[in-house]
Each structure stands twice: as C-alpha cells, then as structure tokens.
Amino acid sequence: MPLDWCPFATKRPIVSENFSTGRDGQQVKAVVLHIAAGPLSAVFPTFNNPARKASAHFCIGKDGTIEQYVSVNDTAYANGLAWRDGRWYNPAGKPVQPTWRDLIPGVNPNLYTISIEHEGYPADKWTEAMYDANNRLLLWLAEQFDLTYVPQRTLIGHCEIDPLDKANCPGPHVEYARMGLEVAALRAARQRAWMPINDQAALYLFAQENHLGYPQTDEFEFTCNNKTYVGQVFNLGIVYAPKSEWHNVKWVKKP
Question: What separation, in Å, do the N-terminal and C-terminal C-alpha atoms of the chain show?
C-alpha cells in the first residue's frame, strides 16, 4: 500500500470535513495539476475551512516548497464531477464535456486521481524550482502507484476534467511533456547504481589537473608490496596513490 504522506513534503493535515477517507475501492490512475490562483500561504487556510468543502493532496510553491494536506490514500475534492442521466456535471451543477479520455462513467474522478495545486495564477510561468519540486513529487507518486506519465492520460490539467469553469487551470504555460520526460529519466536513473563523486578528493583533483577526464569507477583499494593504495579509473587513465599519501598521486594509461 502506498505511504500516506510524502516524506519530503511539509505535512499539514486538514479538517476531516474536506476529504473522504479511502478511495471506495478505486486505484489511482492519474495526477491532476491545478493553479491555486493565489499565494501558497492561502492554500492551507482555505482547505482547512470546513465551510469550503475544498481540498487537494498537495500544493507546490514558487520556491519549490511542497505542502501535503490529505493522505494519498484518501480522496481530496479538487477534481470532482457528478454523473446524472448519462452526463457529467461540475461542482457548480453545470453540464460539462471532459476531454480526459480515461474518466470512468458514473465514478467521481476524485476517487482515482491525485491533485497538486501550484502557487500563482494561470498566466504565470512556473519557476525552475517549481519544475524541480514537481519532478521530485511526481517521481515519488509514480513509485507509490506504479504510474508512467503520459500527457493527457496519466498527467493532466484540471481543464481536462472541467473545461467549462476550469478552462485556465493550471494555465497555458505548463510543460506537461517536459515533466513526463524528466520524471522518466529520473526513474530510469534511480534503477541504476549511482557513483558518488567527491570533487575535492586528491585523485579527482589530480585527474582534472592532468586532463584525464571524468571518473568511471568509485575509488577502490589495492595492495602492492604489502602497501595499500587507493585507485580510481578515469576516461584516459588510472589514477592512484598510497593510502593517506595524497601528495604522491600518480597515473598510468589505460590498456
């Protein structure tokens, strides 16, 4: 079961009147992006007001702050539609024709979506800090719910659910394809072993001074004549030194 709360988001639980416990047996199938039409500081008070009956799971600030208000295993109210007589109606009671192809007829989309608000207004261009925070959060959600992001399918705007009253939510400048691609790259990279690079290490500094390229391995130890050495493979050679004798670094060409 997915974790309830994102470990790197600021946890700000809201009143129980503004979300529903569980998802009525539905599985999360998409993340829906929103614009808050205001500052980050106004989002929690709005969602924590029981008279508003409004909520989203997260909000991302222009500085990259991530706040979470509702467990991802519970139902927030940001993406709601009602189904009557074979038609969808938005929260204002107006009939709408959603463009999102993966709606389940008769089932409120709140039950199978995650909602992310964003600080600012529809005309705003998102900051790089916002894109970085989105990527980090989307990667975590992808791993929790086994999602692969495809714009207009698994990564959508609120406008695709309510094209009438939310036609500018989250706004025209949001780069869905960019986020989908960047999260795919991050997810693929996370499945590989990452090599730490200490750019202050003696071997690394020696390699850069001698134009030997970048590391191809982590540092490793070996012995010769009962003495311990530390080595590291770079693009153009193998750099090594007696352990703790960082003033005595040498290198040899790769065979």
Answer: 50
